[in-house]
Amino acid sequence: EVDGNTYWRYPFSSLCNPRQLEEFIVMDMDIIRDQKLGAGAGVRSNKHTLAEVWVQKTSEMDTSQQYHCRTFLGHLLNIGDLVLGYDFANSNINDEFLNKMNPQHVPDVVLIKKSYDRSRRVRRRNWKLQEMNRDREGTDTDDERQYQDFLEDLEEDEALRRNVNIYRDAAKIPVESDTDDDGAPRISLVEMLEELSLSDATGGEGDGMMTD
Question: Where is the signal peptide (predicted)?
Fold first, then answer.
């Protein structure tokens, strides 16, 4: 993790952008235990687990092509799971620092995050954000996809949502049981606020706040 002060002192550009993420399926994996840390390796993360993973693109399921990499997502992944990542093996990335690296040290694939079914997440989402009224042209626009990405980031990162007001969505019908639960992260009810309307504050239609 790079803090703001470090970034502005030593700025760098990204090798890839979210639009270049591709979907892979986990074919096999091994957790790496007792990893030896060399000098200057820093503090070991307690939130991640290092693993050796063999994946295959979901767009190449009719082939035998698999890719091997190491990932910090070992605590989340199981064989058969879907995961999003960047395909370095078949990408034309022009970066002066990457070009100086030994090709043997550049991974074929860099896995970024576990992938969950978006339609299920939207259906089960029982919270919302307060936002200005806006025209939604559809679920397949860039703006809507970015908005859904942001909502999913909030569900997956407790620190990110710490300073965000999240409200319980009273319009959503509670789901008592969900047989197709894929383990996607959720926001607990204790983290949600009750939405306060003007009529709630006055006990009527808001007339109580008006004076002659």
Answer: none
Q: How far apart are the first and last CA of the chain?
A: 57
Are 27 and 57 spatial neighbours (Cβ–Cβ below 8 Å)? no
Query: Can you tell me the mean pLDDT for 177-206?
Result: 71
Give the pLDDT score at 141. Answer: 82
Q: Is the pLDDT of residue 178 over 80?
A: no
Q: Which two tokens stand for residue 83?
A: 């995961």
Domains, in order of start, for the chain: 16-115 (2.40.50), 116-204 (no CATH)
Q: Are 148 and 125 in contact (CB under 8 A)?
A: no
pLDDT in tens, 119-130: 889 989 999 998
- pLDDT score at 150: 93
pLDDT value at 171 more than 70: yes
